[in-house]
């Protein structure tokens, strides 16, 4: 093209691949998915439902969902989920922890044990079957 873009159209896949002079590559798929491949190695994928996924060169990932939920996957595999209602979750190999806007924190360990810490200082611990092992009702 006169502006130095290179555009390919793959008829069998119904995909358009545009390369810009600065190195950005944009692919438009027939499904409505759009992929942007940046010169620094980052990739941004926009899905038909408008979910956006960023893949970073260092292995981290970030997904932004239409409802505002954000999921970040770190290089070590830990996952952080930020919900649009202010709640936040951390998933690791050892536990899943949800933090609520009021400061309450609930942790579920891989063995099924649950621990809930309330802002009042109360702590409740349950076994994998939901039986209360400890409750420091204040």
Automatic annotation (TrEMBL):
Which cellular component terms (GO) are annotated to the entry? centriole; centrosome
Q: Residues of the signal sequence?
A: none
GO biological process terms on file: centriole elongation; cilium assembly
Pfam families (UniProt xref)? Tcp10_C (PF07202)
Residue ranges of the TM segments: none
In this chain the Centromere protein J C-terminal domain maps to 21-49, 57-91, 96-125
UniProt GO molecular function? tubulin binding
Q: Which domain of life is it from?
A: Eukaryota
What does the sequence similarity comment in the record state about its family? Answer: Belongs to the TCP10 family.
Question: In its UniProt entry, what is this protein called?
Answer: Centromere protein J C-terminal domain-containing protein
Protein's organism: Panthera tigris altaica (Siberian tiger)
Its taxonomic placement starts with: Eukaryota, Metazoa, Chordata, Craniata, Vertebrata
């Amino acid at each position: 093209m006169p502006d130095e873009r290179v555009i390919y159209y793959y008829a069998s896949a119904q995909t358009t691949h545009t390369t810009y002079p600065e190195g950005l590559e944009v692919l438009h798929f027939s499904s409505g998915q759009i992929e942007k491949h940046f010169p620094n190695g980052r990739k941004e994928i926009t899905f038909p439902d408008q979910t956006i996924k960023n893949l970073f060169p260092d292995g981290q990932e970030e997904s932004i969902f239409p409802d505002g939920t954000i999921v970040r996957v770190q290089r070590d595999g830990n996952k952080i989920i930020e919900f649009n209602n202010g709640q936040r979750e951390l998933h690791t190999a050892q536990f899943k922890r949800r933090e609520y806007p009021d400061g309450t924190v609930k942790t579920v360990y891989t063995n099924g044990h649950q621990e809930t810490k309330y802002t009042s200082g109360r702590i409740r611990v349950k076994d994998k079957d939901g039986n209360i092992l400890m409750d420091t009702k204040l």
